[in-house]
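Service request form, structural biology core

Requester: graduate student, group of Dr. S.
Request type: structure prediction, single chain
Budget code: on file
Notes: please return the result as structure tokens.

Sequence provided:
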Amino acid sequence: MTRLTHSNATFDAIVSCDCLEHIPNYSVALDECRRVLRPGGILLLSAPFRLGSQATLVRAVNINSVTQHLAPPEFHGDPVKNSGILCYYHFGWSLLDAIRISGFRRAHVIVYASIAFGYLGGLQSAIVARA
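Core staff response, request fulfilled:
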């Protein structure tokens, strides 16, 4: 997501499901999403989100291509590697500020839950931003 090969203003929408937390410099990915969206386009993303926290929990950082863990390593399922993929962030409300800094006009969080539709495990969240 940090080096998209598509031209500027190519897409009406981008959907990113549980990817952003695995990108060490997620703001570059947000910049790229904004670049390839047409004016008025929509970014819909899901990622670990801390509804009760303004701050983003930084779990790990990459410095000179070396990963340093600031919290116990957390790995999420990966269809390519059995070992999983490292989670760098659990985002707080400050993610909305980062989205706006990347050039999106509006950003908000949608919170939902539904046993009937199979959204289990408590409240779920999605972030929606308009280019």
